[in-house]
Amino acid sequence: MSALAKSEWLIPAGLIAFSFVPILAGSIRLIELGSGAQITPNNARFFTAPLPIVLHIISFSIYCILGAFQFAASFRSHKPNWHRAAGWIIILCGLCAALTGLWMTLFYPTINYPPVNFDGPVLYVMRLLVGSAMALFISLGFAAILKRDIQNHRIWMMRGFALGLGASTQVFTHIPMFLFPNIQGELARTLCMGAGWTINFVAVELMISSERTRRLP
Ligand code: HEM
């Protein structure tokens, strides 16, 4: 694809590589559900109500892969029709990922089966906030583009994507829990999950504010 300068491949390629682990984890879950694997305390909720998790995995995978290309500037300017068509799919998939995430948070049974799961009430509230914020940011990005407000469209879509990619950052923020099993527990789990979202939130706000500074005369 000549439209994309070589160096610009780095942005989509980097973002796709970054989302590789959640997409892989989701694919393994889909295979598990499809192959009728053994039901255990760790996966019973997914077998009891598979639709939300299946929709979640399919939608976040498309969102992460297609969404990565939207951030390459020359791709946007050389392929505006692609950006528009992909944008519709990404908005629908992003909303689906956020809403199914909220659905699972609200309706999957609350489980706390150490050492398999340490999800507690603070993480529950965090998920409600993050899922709602992601859906809101994507909706604001959509509303902005309907008004041809490119600047705010870009900013809200970046924010939504950053929150979504919190799932990727959480792969890294969980490393201490695996390196030091003695710290495993509800507190560590909550901090590791929260750190993933916080890092991405701070990173995207820094990017947005540095872009604003560069645009100042
Ligand atoms: C692009 C965005 C997202 C990605 C890449 C992502 C990734 C994942 C992955 C890999 C899983 C594990 C699936 C499994 O264990 O089989 C998962 C499950 C889940 N996600 Fe997301 N997710 C995203 C957005 C969200 C949002 C915004 C929320 C907020 C509510 C959310 C809430 C959940 C919940 C509640 C589960 C099930 C957890 C459980 O019961 O173990 N996700 N997601």
- Radius of gyration over all CA atoms, rounded: 18 Å
Number of helices: 11
Poorly predicted runs: none
Strand content of the residues, in percent?
under 5%
Mean model confidence by pLDDT: 93
H-E order: HHHHHHHHHHH
Number of domains: 1
Query: What is the total tally of β strands?
Result: 0
The global form is globular
Specify the helix fraction band. over 70%
For the largest beta-sheet, the strand count, sense and barrel status come to: none
**What ligands can be seen in this structure?**
protoporphyrin IX containing FE
| N/C terminus separation | 35 Å
Structure description:
The radius of gyration is 18 Å and the shape is globular. Helix 1 runs antiparallel to helix 4 (50-70). The protein has helices at residues 10-18, 20-34, 44-48, 50-70, 73-78, 80-107, 121-146, 150-164, 166-173, 175-179, 186-215. The mean pLDDT is 93. The protein is an all-alpha fold and 217 residues long. It has one domain (6-211). The structure holds protoporphyrin IX containing FE (HEM).
Summarize the structure.
This protein has 11 helices and no strands. Helix 2 packs antiparallel against helix 4, helix 4 packs antiparallel against helix 6 and helix 6 packs antiparallel against helix 7. The longest helix is centred in the last third of the chain and has 30 residues.
